[in-house]
């Protein structure tokens, strides 16, 4: 089912407003089309919505060109999860007011350099895409509280994660992560850590200061010298769920 927008007067009281459009002071500020089963493309006419702060089209069948999004510089919330979008993510580079960005469950490809200037981001999801290359641009996002890098083929390492002191949830499942857990040591506010099925090595000692942890999965990695008693004590004090099988 396609989604049709024809009238430029979406906020006019006498105009039949398409579903999902919300207005304030006569201007469109929010567009929400979540889980509607919609096909086709997002119309470039949306580029004229210069006061749009929220755009959410989660779980549809949208595809096509997203370059118009670069004009929506007032956006603070952008959710494109679960569609058929593809190509590079350069269209986000100027959206410096964003605090929520979900690009997951699409076929975006290329690197993530475009995210490096989005320093207001607090939530960033790119799970299950074809993005690749270094995750270093994430290290400039010092306000991040939630990060999901799962099911990608990026060059994932936790070196430098000490800059992300606000993180409370980190998921990097099946994310091609290598190296040790040392970069996570300073993240004392971390509550969720799901990093199973990678090639991480070393020991668990860097996790000892993370006493706020409530959910932990470090299974299917290459950890050596399993400090089982330390981890069990740690988990008994703080974690309600855990999976610790490792190889």
Structure description:
With 247 residues, this protein is mostly beta strands. The chain has two domains: 1-144, Leucine-rich repeat, LRR (right-handed beta-alpha superhelix); 157-247, Leucine-rich repeat, LRR (right-handed beta-alpha superhelix). 4% of the residues lie in helices and 26% in strands. The chain contains one helix and 19 strands. An eleven-stranded mixed beta sheet has the order 1-2-4-6-8-10-12-14-16-18-19, with no helix packed on it. Strands 7-9-11-13-15-17 form a six-stranded parallel beta sheet, with no helix packed on it. The protein is elongated.
Summed up, the domain count is 2
Structural class estimated from helices and strands:
mainly beta
- DSSP strand tally: 19
What is the H level of CATH, i.e. the homologous superfamily of the largest domain?
Ribonuclease Inhibitor
Quaternary status of these chains?
Answer: single chain
From the spread of the alpha carbons, the general shape counts as elongated
CA-based gyration radius:
20 Å
Percentage of residues assigned to helices: under 10%
List the SSEs and their pairings.
Blueprint: E1 21-24, E2 27-32, E3 39-41, E4 54-56, E5 61-63, E6 77-79, E7 86-87, E8 100-102, E9 107-110, E10 123-125, E11 130-134, E12 146-148, E13 153-157, E14 169-171, E15 177-179, E16 192-194, E17 199-200, E18 215-217, H1 228-238, E19 241-243
